[in-house]
C-alpha cells in the first residue's frame, strides 16, 4: 500500500505539472477565432519525443497571424484561407513540426512550400489531384504525410525519390488505380506505415514485387481496393511487416504462397472477402501470426483439416458471421499451442467435433451462439464448455425437432442419436462449363465415423478411389469427389454408420461454353441461365485479365 500511495503521489504531481505547462503559454496575440495553448503532441515516430507543444487551432479562418514560435498549426475547415500568405509565412517559421489543413479546399500543392522543421503534414479532405516531387521537396524532414479523401489519380515513382525520412504515408480513399509507383524508387525504404484503402485498382491483382522496395514496412492497409488475387511473390521484400489489412476485397482464396514472404506478420485481417474454403496449411505455418480475422465471407462453406496448421503464436481466430460455414475439420487447428479464442458465432455450424478443441492447451473460449445446433451425440461434449449463464442460454438446439429451441445444456445425453448427418458443404445446384473440373466436398458427422459413398444419376456408385478413377474422377479420404470431365446429372453423397444414414444431392448442369459464368446455389427453384450466363465474365476466367494477354 505504501508503494501505491507513492505512485499515486507521483501521478498527481505529474498531472499537476502538465496543467501548469498548459497554462504557461497562452499566445497573447491569439486571434479570437483561434484557440492557442499548449497541447499534447504525439510524435509520428518513437525517435521523436512526444511532448507538449504550442498549438494554434484556427478553424474557418481567412487570414491568420502566426507567431514566430508556433509549433503546431491546425487550420482544419478553413476553406477560404489564403494559401499564398500561409506558404510565405511558413518559410519564415523554424519551429513548426505539425501542419494540418483538413477540408481547406486545396486543389494543388504549390511548389513554393518550404519548412525544414515540419514532421507531419495532414491534407485530408481536399481536392488534390496530384502529389509531385516538387510539391513535397520543400519538406525534407517530413515523417508523416496524410492525404486521405482527396482525388489523387496517379503518382509518379519519382515523387518520393528523396523522401527518405518519410515513415508514414496515408493515401486512403483517393482515385489511385495502380500501385506501379511503389517500387520505382528506393526513396520509400524507410516507410513503416502505408495506408491505401479505398483506392480501386484497375488491374485487380497484386503482382510479384509490388512492395519490393518497402523493406521497413510494418503496417500495410489495402482494404476495399477490389483485389481479386494476390500472386505468389506479391509480398516479397516485406520482411518486417506485422499488420496486413485486406478487408473488403474480392479474394476467393487465401494467398498462402504470398503469405510465406511475411515472416514477422502478426495480424491478418481478411474480413469481407469471397473466400470459399480453407484447406491444408492455408496460412503457411507462419510463426508469428497472432490473430486471423475471416468474418463475413458469403461463400465460405468449409474449414478443412490443417487449415490453421502449425501456427505457433496464434491466439485468436475470428470466423463469425459466415452465413454458409457448416464444417470445421477435426484437425483444423493442429499445433496451435497458444490458441485461446475461436469465434464461430452466427454461422451455419450445427456440429463440431470434440477433437477440434482437444489438443488446444490454451483454449479459453469457443463462441457458438446463433448457430443452428444439432443436439445429437456429436455435440454433447460442448455442454462442459458452456460455463457462464449467457453461453448456457444462447446455445440452443435447432434440431432434432423434439429438442428444437431447447438449450443444449438441457438435453439428456442418453436420449440423443449418433446417426450421420451430411453438412451443406457443397451447393444443391451448380452450373459449370465443360472445361472446368467440379469439386464436391462431402463432410459428415456421426459416431462411429460414417462411411461415405457417392451415387450418380447414371446408376454408378463410387465407393473408393479405384472406382472413381474408372469414371475419370477421384475420391479422397475426407469425402471429396473431384470430377475431371463433368457430365450433367445428380451426384448424391451418402453417409452411413451402424446408427443410420443420411444423404445430400447436387444437381450439376454442364454447359459447352468457355464463357459461361459458374453458378453455385442452394436455391431449388429453376435458375435462369439465359441470358446472364452467356456473358464474357472476367470474374470467372481471371486469366483473361493477365497482363500478357489483354491488359495494356
Ligand atoms: C474551392 O475552390 C474553388 C477553386 O479552386 C472555388 O471555386 C470554390 O468556390 C472554393 N470553395 C469554397 C467553399 O471556398
Ligand atoms: C533528389 O535526389 C536526387 C538523386 O536521387 C538528387 O540528385 C537531388 O539533388 C535530390 N534533390 C533534393 C532536393 O534533395
Ligand atoms: C514492380 O512492380 C511492378 C508492378 O507494380 C512489377 O511488374 C515489377 O516486376 C516490380 N519490380 C520489381 C523490381 O519487383
Ligand atoms: C512470382 O513469384 C512466385 C513466388 O516467388 C514465383 O513462384 C512465380 O514464378 C513468380 N511469377 C512470375 C510471373 O514471376
Ligand atoms: C473398391 O470397392 C469395390 C466395391 O466395394 C471393391 O471390390 C474394391 O476392392 C475396392 N477397392 C479398393 C482399392 O479398396
Ligand atoms: C481462360 O481464357 C484463356 C484465354 O482465352 C483460355 O486459354 C483458358 O483456357 C481459359 N480458362 C478456362 C478455365 O476456361
Automatic annotation (TrEMBL):
Residues 420-509 form the Ig-like domain. It comes from Ciona intestinalis. GO terms for molecular function: signaling receptor activity. The keyword NAD does not apply. Residues 1-21 form the signal peptide. This is Ig-like domain-containing protein. PANTHER family: IG(IMMUNOGLOBULIN) AND LRR(LEUCINE RICH REPEAT) DOMAINS, TIR DOMAIN-CONTAINING PROTEIN. Pfam families: I-set, LRR_5, LRR_8. The keyword Signal applies. Keywords: Disulfide bond, Leucine-rich repeat, Repeat, Signal.
